[in-house]
# Entry
Amino acid sequence: MNILLSIFLSASLSILTEHPVTGQSNMSVYVQNLTTGEVIESYREDKVVPPASVMKLLTTAAALEVFGEDYRFPTVLEYSGTIRDGVLHGNLYIRGGCDPSLGWKGRTAFLIQWGKAVRAAGITAIDGSVIADMTMLDGEAQNPGWLCEDAGNYYAPGIFALNYYGNTMNIVLQSGEPGSVATVLKTEPRVDDVRFINHVRCDKITYDGAFVSGLPYSNERYLTGAVPSNLGTFGVKGDLPNPGLLLARHFTMWLRNAGIEVKHEPLYEADYYPLRIPRTEIYVHYSEPLSELLKETNMNSNNLYAEAMFRFLGTRYILPGTIHNSQDFLRDYWRRRGVSLSNAIIKDGCGLAPQDAVSAKAFVQLLTIMYRGKNAEAWMASLPVSGKSGTLTSLCLQTPLEGRIHAKSGTIAGTKNFAGYIDMPNGDTWAFAVLINSAPGKARNIQTVIQRYLLDVYKQHQ
# Structure
């Protein structure tokens, strides 16, 4: 480090700048007392660095401010054609509204209510198909800013106007002798037309080293890597190629089992047509309130939920929603609110894109707005608490800061970031962002150094 610069650094900051793990990293730090306005710590606070999942703060805060904590994502059942003598001469549509929670963790009881709605509309048979309408968003379901190696994995699923089952399937494998190839037994949920090119080998290892690769709408998935030999059956998570179509299939199956004949097999629509055949609405399914979806997003760092909100924000400009519109909306919205994003790079809404870059000062500006705004209570409730909940369970555990930090974490290779709030003993509240990128070693080692820094700066000012 430059000797002259080190003279002006606090003893607390020196923990970050002089430690072998973080000293040579790409770093941005900013800490401000929101009660008094005093800047507590600052180091390269305007330097933009990859935020990883801290990026979710930009997305979830914008969604909360724009739509409000009580907003519920709608999914609409509607039909084209006419109903005569109980027969729908047309198609039944499931029109998606970007709800990320449909069928989350396999919860499909809502199909019962959907079936009741179909009967209530006087439909006892369908002379057509159940069609998944995914046209609110364009067909670019995979963010081009994401790494190719992530595509197809459970944490990087395609994002659609109709999301279902977390857009994830569990691929059940059977391991065998060392050197053999594991056998694909089934998928959960069942996806009949997916085809696996399987090169997962059984090896003398103790961890799951299998990977899934593939693209949205494609029914081909590549399985590579290794798994422990002679382990029996186990699951590897991958993305669903077309979750909307799977939902249409499940609903078609439910209707047929309930005695409602559906003549043709389910279909999906992915391209937006402003002039479409008129439809009649029969039922609207609503998600849980946005405040509950935010908790899942920020507490568990859910990429699907964050990215669905990001894509939905883009529909505020024009239909169909595009990734480009979402990027522009997020940047323009926070710029108007006074957040410094002039040098920031916004590629996605969840932080999976390695090109994302935001400064610590920008995050503190955003945190200040949210802390003082009308949605402060719902916002704070969505954030993990140090040593207590979500992704902060291990942060500052059994230290004076346990339970005092409300923040979002972000982790990718060589990166560990935190941004949020610290409750001080005197009643003051601080907003902080510590962003560490391109550091050697494992994320837990970077976290250890950041924890030391936070504890030191806290003790110096308590």
Summary: The radius of gyration is 24 Å. The longest strand covers residues 220-228.
